[in-house]
Amino acid sequence: MVKFSRFTLDNGLRILVHEDHATPMAVVNLLYDVGSRDEHPDKTGFAHLFEHLMFGGSVNIPSYDGPSQAVGAQNNAFTSNDITNYYITLPAANLETAFWLESDRMLGLAFSEKSLDVQRNVVCEEFKQRYLNQPYGDVWLRLRPLAYQVHPYRWATIGKELSHIEQAKMDDVRAFFTKHYAPENAILVVAGDVEVDAVKELAEKWFAPIASRGKYVRKLPAEPEQREAHREVIYADVPLNSLYIAFHGPARLENAYYAMDLISDLLSRGTSSRLYRTLVKEKELFSEINAYHTGSIDGNLFVVAGKPLSNITLEAAEEAIWDELRQLKYEQVTDYELNKVKNRIESTMVFAEMAILEKAMNLAYFELLGDADGLNREVDRYFAVSAEDIQRQANQLFRKENSSTLIYIADKHAY
Amino acid sequence: MLTRTQPPPYHPISGLDLIKPQEITFSNGLKVFIFDSGEQDLVRIEWIVDHLFGREDQALLNSSICELLPEGTLTLSSAQIAELVDFHGAFLIPGVGYDQSSLTLFSLNKHLEELLPVVKDMLTNAVFSEKELATYIRNNKQKLQVSLQKNSFVARRLFNKSVFGTARYGYVPEVSDYDELTRNNLLVLFSQQYRPSNCTLVVSGKITGNVINSLDRLFGNDWVDQNGALPIEQIPNVLPTAGKLAVDVRKDAMQSAIRMGCLSVQRPHPDFPGLQVLNTVLGGYFGSRLMTNIREDKGYTYSISSGMASLKHSAFFTLGSEVGVDVTAATLGEIEREINRLRDEPVSNEELAVVRSYIMGSLLGSLENVFSHADKFKNVYFSGLGLEYYDRYTSVINTITPDEICHLANTYLDFDKMVKVVVGKI
Fold first, then answer.
1. Which residues, at least 6 apart from A96, have a Cβ–Cβ distance to it below 8 Å?
2. Do B85 and A270 count as a contact with CB atoms less than 8 A apart?
3. Nearest CA in chain A to B325
4. Beta strand pairing status for B419-424 and B244-249?
5. I want to staple A96 with a disulfide (CB 3.0 to 4.6 A). Which of A276, B8, B203, B372 is the partner?
6. CATH 3.30.830.10 fits B22-221, yes or no
7. By the CB < 8 Å criterion, does B94 face chain A?
8. Is the pLDDT reported for residue A413 higher than 70?
9. What does residue A389 show for φ and ψ, rounded to 5 degrees?
10. Is beta strand A300-308 parallel, antiparallel or unpaired with respect to A186-192?
């Protein structure tokens, strides 16, 4: 149970406070309701590049990191397809420094050409390091456009290609800031060794003077239902063949989301899970295999990914995966197995309460979804899923016409 | 009127409140350290065994034993163990370091009674069946083949080999080494290493008397130490290496992985805390000189960092990055310049003040929950030190002078004498 207080400033900034006096630290987590799904198709990777620029100085503070480090703080941020999330952890006695720094970034950026130049390079190196310069690194660059036709989830957060980042202009940066970094598009969570009243005072002092700039209203193209299987085969300089099958799944706020999440656990969470037990250990077809979903707010992708052993053909490997998926469609999961994955959900939620940063991020994310208290009802949502729900969702997901299959064929793979 | 150009007042961190463990020795000699704190009804229990090196090149045996522990015992199959752990929502994680292996159980208190006997069975009755071993070998060979195409992975291996040579810390497995693993070798080393007199138990979370009693019954009373006295420890022969540059050319690389460093001193050495400060200035945090110059000024890389590792019989300083192939040589030049600058010019008081605050803040932040208190303890305990080390450490952080840092740089950081590895293009 994560208790919290909630209030909204006149400029629309939502603020949540969670007191945890077991730690001497405080965390300030600021979620902006903008991700790569809000980008223009010809200027992708921009939300993430912008996240880097947020550390390049603000209107009144030439450097974000210097003063942050000087009070013993650690900070970072991440961008996803849905959100951009900034966080700073520091000794609670220095909480006000976080308010000073974060409010100035919301007020306005320094917009320096030097910072833009450097961060374009840094992000290009990040692009190469994570997506281009390692085996299978480009899988999401290929799988997303294979599965999504119109929704902006068809590109990865890093961007479609290096050139989009290389061509980013200062005008784009300014426009992006005005459109997305307004107080009414943000959720601020303060957690740790803090008092609600003191946080209210600090919020009024530092954030209330920031003028509202209008709420961004998202109008994204809906992904039409997929009606035929997609397939892409790549011959690549990778050591082993590799196989990815992606299915369109429910959005985060649909009831069916919980069944889909439990299906990924049944298939691949822990060493007793179905894919590992059957395909790695019993039938000895794969060296590794996993199932997961993108955890996105709009329609998700559910992915099964595996590397077949060198003596197994791709056809046999693919068929073996489908056999496992068909089992979920045709046979109801037992109470025992369903309880097993639910127990794991329960313990994971308890372990997540050990860290204030994790609690703060979760509160912000659930508030974005509609209500931070949803975090505390989450376990019940999972426990309400029945064996029929699982079967129904498996039938919805695992259809050939709903699938996009990506295959890497290794130059050197020995048959 | 709100002043936004000036920071709010700074409150320095006064001290650390470390949890001291309750220390128990069970009747069979097993050492137990207990950290009881926290609201949540959960525990983390770590069984940590020391590696006993009969041969310097046995690291693959050590890791294989630990990772195969959950793959079957005399009474439970691999599948049964997996079901028991997963059904109770627990996590059972093998971990392998240079000098120790560990088995870590994360569990809600309410399921411990079902899970502790499973762990006991694994630690005493693991069988390493031929079938499970064959699966393990097959899958790990495939995984290693994938890793060997990652430049940073290859660079770390080359670095370790170059610094430590044939000593244990320089061993890196080749794909073919997996074929040398035999069930018999695993069983022999398993029976030597996994025994109470060679094991340490670190327990953290909400630890009731019931938990301690269960542990005592299963891992004290019922765990018999066989095999007589522990063998006398072989000390590895680690010789200083001459500085050199090793390049592994990858013709299609977009980035080069750089890794460099040298031998250093261990945690108990009086210079170690000061070296931590020096390391932080150079490459130990986001505002470090390497990050400021090579990422934030030049944009050559996404990340560059340095660190120190204190091992049981040695220690090393290391620095690594992945940079565009066209700026690989330039990056090496800038690293050399930054190291020499630390040797030639004392750091400013302003920079030192930031580094002090940063280290103290991250130290405080690293004590967020009871698990992290246990981790702090393990760091010093396995270096043969007590928690009072942190008093010495924080005192050095707060009192070290720019001249002392300069002196440490001249003593321990010499670019020419470092091993430098580049995997990619230069």
1. A202, A206, B8, B9
2. yes
3. A125
4. parallel
5. B8
6. yes
7. no
8. no
9. -60, -45
10. unpaired
- Tell me the domain boundaries of chain B: 22-221, 244-424
The pairs formed by A316-323 with CB atoms below 8 angstroms and a separation of 24 or more are A316/A285, A317/A241, A317/A243, A317/A285, A317/A286, A318/A243, A318/A245, A318/A405, A320/A279, A320/A283, A320/A285, A320/A286, A321/A243, A321/A245, A321/A275, A321/A279, A321/A289, A322/A398
Q: DSSP letters along B115-184, please?
A: HHHHHHHHHHHB---HHHHHHHHHHHHHHHHHHTT-HHHHHHHHHHHHHHTTSGGG----GGGGGG--HH
B324 within 8 A of B254, measured Cβ to Cβ: yes
H/E run at residue B64: helix B59-68
pLDDT at A411: 84
| Of A203-207, B1-5, B171-175, minimum mean pLDDT range | B1-5
Radius of gyration of chain B (CA): 24
> In chain A, how many H helices and how many E strands?
15, 11
Q: Tell me how far apart the alpha carbons of residues A304 and A263 are, in angstroms, rounded to a whole number.
A: 11
Q: How far is CA A211 from CA A60, A107, A182, A367, B250, in A?
A: 16, 8, 8, 22, 53
> Are the Cβ atoms of B286 and A65 closer than 8 angstroms?
yes
Q: Is B307 on the interface with A (CB under 8 A)?
A: no
pLDDT at A414 (0 to 100): 44
DSSP string, A248-305: EE--TTSTHHHHHHHHHHHHHSSTTSHHIIIIIIIS--EEEEEEEE---SSSEEEEEE
> How far is residue A131's CA from residue A317's CA, in Å, rounded to a whole number?
25
CB count within 10 Å of CB B252 equals 9
Cα–Cα distance, B124 to B223 (Å, whole number): 8
- The tokens for B6 are 């000036």
B111, B88 contact by CB (below 8 A): yes
* Distance, CA of A83 to CA of A65 (rounded, Å): 22
Catalytic annotation, pick one of A39, A51, A102, A324: A51
Tokens representing residue A289 in the block: 């295999």
Residue from B1, B5, B40, B86 whose CB has the most chain A CBs within 10 Å, to mutate: B86
Contact assignment for A25 to B286 by CB distance below 8 Å: no
Dihedral, CA of residue B207, residue B209, residue B214 and residue B220, to nearest 10: 100
Cβ B257 vs Cβ B151: under 8 Å: yes
Quick one: closest CA in A to B1, which residue? Answer: A205
Q: Residues B56-86: pLDDT tens digits?
A: 999 999 999 999 999 999 999 999 999 999 9
Dihedral over alpha carbons B30, B36, B42, B44 (to 10 degrees): -40
What CA–CA distance (Å, rounded) separates A365 from A362? 5
> What pLDDT does residue A415 have?
40
List, in order, residues 6 or more apart from A378 with CB less than 8 Å away. Answer: A349, A366
Q: Does domain B244-424 have CATH number 3.30.830.10?
A: yes
DSSP state of B38: -
End-to-end CA distance of chain A: 53
**Cβ within 8 Å of residue B77, ≥6 positions away:** none
- Strand pairing partners for B301? B323
> Global pTM?
0.94
Cβ(B191)–Cβ(B185) under 8 Å? Answer: no
Closest CA to B260 of B425, B99, B410, B413: B413
For B321-338, b/e burial (b = at least 16 CB within 10 A) is bbbbbebbeebbebbeeb
Give the ipTM: 0.91
Distance CA(B153)–CA(B162), nearest Å, equals: 14
Domains B22-221 and B244-424 share a fold: yes
Q: What are the pLDDT digits (tens) for A130-181?
A: 999 889 999 999 999 999 999 999 999 999 999 999 999 999 989 999 999 9
- Cβ contact A100–B8 (<8 Å): yes
A228 is annotated as an active-site residue: no
Q: Which of B158, B220, B110, B301 is nearest to A118 (CA)?
A: B301
